[in-house]
Design a protein that fits this description.
Elements lengths: L7 H5 L15 H13 L8 E2 L1 H8 L3 H13 L3 E4 L3 E4 L4 H20 L9 H15 L3 H17 L4 H20 L3 H20 L3 H32 L1
Antiparallel strand pairs: 1-3, 2-3
Helix pairs in contact: 2-4, 2-8, 5-8, 5-10, 6-7, 6-9, 7-8, 7-9, 9-10
Length: 240
Amino acid sequence: MDASGTGATGTTGGLADDRALLGRTSTAERVADILRTRIAEGFFPPGTRLSEESIGGALGVSRNTLREAFRLLTHERLLVHELNRGVFVRVLAVDDVEDIYRTRRLVECAVVRSLGEPPFPVAGLAAAVAEGEAAARTGDWREVSTANIHFHRELVALAGSARTDELMRGVLAELRLAFHVVDDPRALHEPYLVRNKEILEALRAGDRAVAERLLARYLDDSIGRVAAAYARAVDEPAEA
């Protein structure tokens, strides 16, 4: 997005392409779901002001519908409303990042622990691992980050719980706010390509106990790495 925030692509992230997803039952919840996905995939970086006119026009929805969607995403801590300035994608604090990882550990490890008898349906996990490896080969580290989010969404989906899926969609979208401002995405994401594959192979072998241990160690390591990288990224501009 350019500095002025102008231009259809820069202000809407190509949202016009998502208009078909609304179908005939356009609702604030469906608009919020589209915007949540776009935030999770990095189209709207932290600090971006969301234009009611541009986004409403791209999606073909009323201002009232869009405002309700903004309200829902504000409740999920993805957006923040600033008086007399508008609605912005939230900029996280380091404490937020640490809390996100604590939540992930509680939920994701519980999902793996509670899996039934193998074989486990790992096709979605395998596709996310392949997606990450393909992105790494081209040096597209933002897409590696997206593939990592997809991997963990697929992991949580193994629980077969719509409520857990909904919870983690918001948590992982919020995490992407931190990923987007890290100054060295390769250093952050590359180690987890191998670790995701190790978790996949453990589940493919039907060993959920090993998969849970690998996942717990992964998340314990991540909380320090991501929080430190994020702290550097948000502190450096203030010091410049």
